[in-house]
Please model this.
Amino acid sequence: MTCRHVLGLIDAGPFADYPRAHLDAAWQHARQCPTCGPALEAATALTAGLSALPHPAPARDLTAAVLARIAQVDSTGIPHTAPTRPEATMPSVTRDWPAWATALGGIGAGFAMVLWTPLGGAAPMDIAWLRLPGMPSDPVAMFSTTPAALVLASGLALYVTGLFAQVRRGRR
Amino acid sequence: MTASDRDVVGDARRGDRDAFGELVQRYQGRLFGLVLMMVREPAGAEDVTQDAFVRAHANIHRYDDRRPFYPWLAAIAVRLAQNWLRRHGRMVRREGAALELAPEPAGAAATLTALIASERTRRLWQAVAALPSGQRTVVMLYYRDEMAVRDIALALGVTTGTIKTLLFRARRQLRGYLQDAQRSGENIVI
Model:
């Protein structure tokens, strides 16, 4: 431990945050050092003085005034002690159905578009890299145009429904 | 033997007003001291302290009784004191220094020190009262009220790094203030 360490420790702040061994080493150095000794003592005294700052009493006992105000609040019927209802604060799956609908719709539409290109009609995207062992060599062939169109239409419908529901809820 | 805070809070939660009165009795001095140090006006400090207790009563169902009661109460009081300061136009909004205040009206610190009987303690109180608001608030919460840095950060809505910086600056300023006072021949106790 050097003077630089000890003075750094004094500067760095509250002693309570330092390990005991660190402080002991600082004191050991400070006892033999004419610079660090007084500085560390002053810093320790400052900490002790701050910890003992008084609690100046208010001019009068506040208990009666506080209880009178609480009684007044109670008598006006403001439900200030009502516990927070969990359903009001916790998001639930049923309450957030528009979000789910939006997400599912988006996924459905995306999936359908991967498998079927409605505007170009002919060229499906190359999804050979998706092929799992045991699948037919051309998995796109498994899907006919009609189911893919249905998936896309349902996905878009869900997406639009969810989107408008969110907007309506936001206006409320 | 006095009942623990947990028991008293439990009774207060069940609607026992006397139990809440017991909490007011226990903590009014400590809380008033903190608020007084923040707003530096005894009448304002009384109002804020009362408001803090009324607010605490209204929200007592939100208090987590696994944690000590005072830091929760102090957090409410600190927020109310900040509102009070804003209403009274003393809060200066500066980036990175949300807790700092404009200079206090002359004589405010003197009113405070009049409430403290001991000359020794008055000197130190005066030194703390001369600090900017953010620093003196964290000094009170950390040293006098023995709150953890993390709890203070939560109460003030800032990061733990900000609290440590404020503590560091406060200590440095206090040391400087006390050294200056010593050099000018005042009877300093620490």
